[in-house]
Amino acid sequence: MPNLPKQPKPRNKQTIRKAWVDEYTAARRARAAGDTTGEWHHLERAHILSQPLPVTHVRTHVSMLGAGIRRRDRGEILGQLVRLVVAGPGSVVGRYPLGNTGGADVKAVAPMPIPADLQAVFDRTVTASS
């Protein structure tokens, strides 16, 4: 695994968690409506938010794995199994690719731009790393 930069620790995890719950709930609603594209969109956004939160990060990858299984997407299934192994530890030590959307269609260690509305959540909750 490449040497990823240490990310700042969130000052207010509840703010991030609330935004994550909103995205995760939207993904579940999309799934219930049969909207697989909408489900995946919200899971990617949930993934970005979950990265600083180990349990939430793993839970997001479990949901992404489930989506891959429902779509019978072998590449996504394999990619999520690999990500499940590294997601929790990466979050615990604060080394993860900030902004990465978490799907197997992107490199697991590639930082990515964060949508402006999600960046605003982080801007309200992050302090310098310790």
Structure in words:
α1 (about 15-30) packs antiparallel against α2 and α3 runs antiparallel to α4 (about 75-95). The chain is mainly α and about 130 residues long. The chain has one domain. The chain has helices at about 15-30, 35-50, 55-70, 75-95, 115-125.
Give the secondary structure arrangement, pairings included.
Blueprint: H1 13-32, H2 36-50, H3 54-71, H4 74-93, H5 116-125
Descriptive keywords:
130 residues; mainly alpha; 5 helices; globular
Provide the low-confidence segments as ranges.
none
Oligomer: single chain
Mean pLDDT across every amino acid position:
92
Measured between the Cα atoms of the first and last residue, the distance is 22 Å
The counted number of beta strands is: 0
Total helices: the number is 5
Q: What structural class results from the helix and strand content?
A: mainly alpha
Summarize the helix and strand pattern as letters. HHHHH
Overall domain count:
1
Largest sheet: none
Strand content: under 5%
Large-scale geometry = globular
Helix content class: 55-70%
Spatial extent as radius of gyration:
14 Å
